[in-house]
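TL;DR need structure tokens for one chain.
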Amino acid sequence: MDLNEKRNEGLPFSPEYFDHLNINRSAVERRAASLPGRRTVKKEYQAAWLLRAISCIDLTTLAGDDTAGNVQRLCAKALNPVRQDLLDALGFPALTVGAVCVYHNMIADARKALGHSGLPIAAVSTGFPAGKISLEQKLDEIRRSVEAGASEIDIVISRDLVINNQWEELYREVKLSREACGDAHMKTILATGEIPTLTKVAKASWVSMMAGSDFIKTSTGKESVNATLPVSLVMVRAIRDYYELTGTKIGYKPAGGIQKAKQALDFLILIKEELGNDWLNNQLFRFGASSLLGDIERQLEHYVTGRYSAGYRHAMA
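>> reply
TL;DR here they are.
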């Protein structure tokens, strides 16, 4: 499936869009803590939400010991994420995840495994996860990933630019990365666990969107703290404000540490509460995850059979 939302053309750099931002951490944390209790999702409604969550997963393998075999198994699971007998019982004929996410050198293996399925390949780029390479190297890596067959590029920003308030330099880096992506959609990873304040998270979100990002993403999954509801609240409110200003919908991708079905529901509730139903699809929302899928399948089996199976029966791939 191809992303079909209107591309983000961005805005000219101007600090007036974000200079005034000053995020109250206590208020954000109170609001985020209230979200899981605001909606109770049970029985068939929970099953429906979990099926939606599966369709929004970027099924990911970003390990140092990745092999062609690992990627082939990942792609097989991506194309058939839930056992067919469970889908039949749920009255759901077919389902895939949103995309597979791999390192650059695994793109060819993913293409071979996915065949003509049309499932997108997302490649992490720009010196993932630290981003500690030159801008020229980052742009070259993006171009090579697109040429290899990636239709989505997940870039990492230089966190030192955020920490040192070098907003115009960050804007230039992201804008040049977007140009290097060509027709491929670009997700910009902020690595929020390495950004010291929520105010800087909000400003980095704005600069990334102004520079043309199609998605903003929390984390590489390699930081000590990854996706959380408070940081997600800050980022999705930036998305909401950008939409109100420009009419352009920016996607959102929480990644790292989302392992349980209950967590997935909490993030979906956040999106519904803050952005609305238009964002509850894989055109504008993705989970970066691997083990999450196994727990969701386990919950769906419980809904169908009334029994919990062992977690090892629902391995990622």
